[in-house]
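Continuing the series of single-chain predictions for the mutant panel. This is the parent chain; the variants come on the following pages.
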Amino acid sequence: MVLARPLQRTLFRTSLFRSHFHVNHCLLAAQKSLRTFNLADIGEGITECEIIRWAVKEQSAVQSFDPLCEVQSDKASVEITSPYDGVIKQFLVGEGEVAKVGQGLCLIEVEEDDSTGVESTETTGQSPVQKPVQVTHEVAEDTPTEVPPSVHVPPRKHPLDPTNVPSATATIDHVLATPTVRHFARQHGVDLAAIAPGSGRDGRVEKRDVEALISNVSVPEEAETASRQQEDVVVDLGRTRYGMWKAMVQSLEIPRFGYSTSLDLTRFHGLLPTLNAHIPAHYLPSTSTTSSSRISHMVNPSALYPVPQPPSVPESGRFTKMTYLPFLLKTLAISMMEWPLFRASITPDPAQDTSKPTLTIRPTADLTLALSTPTGLYTPTISSAQSFSLHALASRVTHLAYLGRQVPCGLTVKDMPRRGGTISVSNVGAIGKGEGASPVLVPGGGVAIVAIGRARWVWDVSDEFYCPNDGMEGERRLKIDVSWSADHRVVEGAELAAFVETWRGWVENPERLIAEAT
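Parent structure:
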């Protein structure tokens, strides 16, 4: 027995002997599969979101809860995290594109454990492990104590993982709530898990649920509305206003040159009644009545050959009264044709491999209008404005204003092309009585922007109208203020001043338009 005990101890302590009873957990089979990650419903009636940026790249590895992308809805900007551990195989929606709720955003390759896998031994790989039989009492005492295997704690699953089955006890990470409600709850020290599920759709916790928990009473709807009116309200920027936010931040990169002056509209004001009295019939609303001349009843102009049909004009583009804006746009477009610099835009991607920026000169005068709408600021473009007649420009401006007033906005990509115009026009005079402005030029907005004020009658005592010796002590004139901002990287101050004087030559002498073949 003395000789047998060391032999038995050696047999049980040798790794060769014990390896026959070792369980190999790495033999469980795994397989890879592609899963489509869809845009989930983030609540508040949102049906679509714009992909602002992707935080990962294709073929890159991600873990659960890693940031995937940032999306922008009409109400908030939200960061979406990955529901799986895996590899990003393909983006289904690119940056700047809009995805509907339920639409696939990307494909993620994940590894799935084979549910049929069982623990096997190293000897046969088929039979389960059997416990060794103790030979004697002494052997069991000398055998080293086996360390129990560590308890495997499964990782926390993402709420959007289809395999995630929510437990009975909710945690704050699994509670459905908007960012505004979460912020409100943190301010008041409220645990959202304590009041989940909420009164909203699919158990979503609403602000009224948090307020009810704070007061421990059910607040009537009328009293709740009154209390909200007396509190600070956190409002998320909409998609359009958030786009304006980013554009204004980028505008700080442009060195600007400002220039202000006033234009005399007195002579055009004298022509305006004649233009309004002879608006072509196809530009007039269908409900208006036009008085035909006596000659048209006596002689038929189409007796020999049919008269060409006028262009089709939508009802939203018809008008009964012309304003000063179409005339200012027309004369500005003609001036741009005389100045190629103001028909230029900074080339976004130069064709040649050079470090120097380049300019792209356009053959037409493209004007962008700054349009204030109920849903935000939009910038539709009138391409080839120099080819429009005054009535056609008035019709186009009326139609764009109508589309902008619609909720949601009726302007389309065709109305707002990506490259925009080379000069932007902001008609601030239509809103207030301001005499001047300081317009902001944003990247991609062309080389200059002009703000047009409100026309007003003033007593002009300049040298042109004031000569006491001849009995001229001034004259009442119709003036309009214009304020410019130009990209000083491209436009010199003298060039902007000379261009404005070219524009003045057309505005203050409207009879020159008679010689134009448009």
